[in-house]
Amino acid sequence: MSSDPDDGTPRLSERDRAVLTFERRTWASAGAKERAIREDLGLTPTRYYQLLNALLDDAAAVAYDPVTVNRLRRLRDARRGRR
């Protein structure tokens, strides 16, 4: 994340925006998604999910894509509640 030179507010890196945009897609299978993570983003699935999880707690990510971030937060909270 970096700051906007005009007003100093945090903004997302190109990679962070790509991760959020990628997460909007739907997948026929987990294998297809993992393959696309490697091919499209050049990340391992483990690193992708680490970055994605960190973005869920980032105010700049909420500002960029509130629908996706809030949906993923709800899913994460539900998983935590079942543990």
Give your account of this protein's structure.
A hairpin with a 6-residue loop joins strand 1 (2-3) and strand 2 (10-11). The termini are far apart. The model has no long low-confidence stretch (mean pLDDT 90). The protein has helices at residues 14-23, 30-41, 45-55, 59-64, 66-82, and strands at 2-3, 10-11. By secondary structure, the chain is mainly alpha-helical. It has a two-stranded antiparallel ribbon with strand order 1-2. The protein contains five helices and two strands; from the N terminus they run E-E-H-H-H-H-H. It comes from Streptomyces blastmyceticus. This is DUF3263 domain-containing protein. It holds the Pfam family DUF3263.
Secondary-structure blueprint:
Elements: E1 2-3, E2 10-11, H1 14-23, H2 30-41, H3 45-55, H4 59-64, H5 66-82
Antiparallel strand pairs: 1-2
- C-alpha Rg (nearest Å): 14 Å
Low-confidence stretches: none
Describe the largest sheet: 2 strands, antiparallel
| Overall helicity | 55-70%
Overall shape: globular
Strand order in the largest sheet: 1-2
Protein traits:
globular; mainly alpha; 67% helix; 83 residues; two-stranded antiparallel sheet; 5 helices
A few lines on this structure:
This protein is mainly α. The chain has 5 helices and 2 strands, in the order ββααααα. The longest helix is centred in the last third of the chain and has 17 residues, at 66-82.
